[in-house]
Amino acid sequence: MLSGDNGLLKKAGDAKSETEIASIKEQIQLQVLGSFREYADLELDKLKTNLQSIGATVIGSEFPLTVTLDNQTFTVDSKGNVTKPTPPTPPSEDYLALREGDIVYYKDANNNDIECTVLYDSQNANYSTYGVQIIPRNPVTKKELGNGKGAQKTDIDNFNIAKGVYNDAINVLNTAAEEYVTSNPNLAAIAKSSRCVGSLPGSPNTRNTAKYTHIEGTNDYFAIYDEQFEAGEDDVAYTTNNTTNYTVDWAQLGTLGIKNITDTTNGNNYWLASRYVYRNSESTLTCFPVCMAYKSGKIIDSSFLCGVNSSGVTYSYSKTQALRPVITLKSNIKIAERDGKKYLTVEWKILKAPR
């Protein structure tokens, strides 16, 4: 037989197709190899330029990138792995039926019921980039930011530690949110990803990388630290070129009436993944806080990680606040109802932690 699903012509065509795909993948891999920095990390912008130079279409502002060449699509991760994406599984009916404001539950690692609110649903205008996201009604863990010493310090070494944490605070908080998920098998089964509330819903690690510089004649004492701090994302900053990361989630929390928290086991305040630069009214102090909210649902402006006063004295602080992760759900989740509660699961039963 030369025709049919098992015919020789069919097999020959499949073999040719596989050869063509392998050739296209090899072209992409060559561009990946030419895009590594000296210390073996893959340079995103250089990779995008190199791929575009061979006629590829590149989608993404962070890894993994989606790369299409000669009608074949691949993904490239931060380590340079080139893979053919698996066709997506259609979302479950339960997933699509979730609505913003719905109350759902999951079992934590100790089999406690964790109440959550659907923050963004499949009807949201930004669903294609957000997916369906939920947020615990109350913080589920806590995270320290600052010098790591548990107290205020005035030496330069701890100042530099806190400065580094401030600059990387959005990534640090998002990583803590991811670690909470991965440490909980029940949650990991239903979660696609996790981030700290206050980061951008569709691009959590986006941050304002513009550097802060002093204002001549106002806080000249800070001049020796110019360009060492990122300017931050909060719109109350005394600086320019800033974005407003936290305001997207903050507005949605307000719409749903869940800015406040009712359980303070992990603390009275919770982090918002945005930063800003603060100068007091006399310009005698320049500080670098990360945003946080009080239990009543109001923004707090005293979450300084480090600062410099007009006498040139450096300060660093250790701040431990509660964490509310925002969890993006896998699209295959199901709802299992028991005792009037809707539990998120991947099976028609409620997942429990292994004992």
Features:
355 residues; alpha+beta; 2 domains; 6-stranded antiparallel β-sheet; 5-stranded antiparallel β-sheet; 8 helices; 19 strands
Give a nutshell description of this structure:
The protein is an alpha+beta fold and 355 residues long.
Structure overview:
With 355 residues, this protein is of the alpha+beta class. The chain folds into 2 domains: 8-83; 117-329, no CATH class. It is 25% helix and 27% strand. It has helices spanning 8-33, 44-53, 93-97, 127-130, 156-167, 169-182, 185-190, 246-256; strands at residues 57-59, 65-69, 72-76, 82-83, 103-107, 113-120, 133-136, 141-146, 191-196, 269-275, 278-279, 285-294, 299-300, 304-309, 314-316, 318-323, 325-329, 334-338, 341-345. The strands form 5 sheets. Strands 10, 11, 12, 13, 14 and 15 form a 6-stranded antiparallel beta sheet that branches. It has a 5-stranded antiparallel beta sheet with strand order 5-6-7-17-9. Strands 1-2-3-4 form a 4-stranded antiparallel beta sheet, with helices on one face. The protein is flat. The model is unreliable at 235-241 (pLDDT under 50).
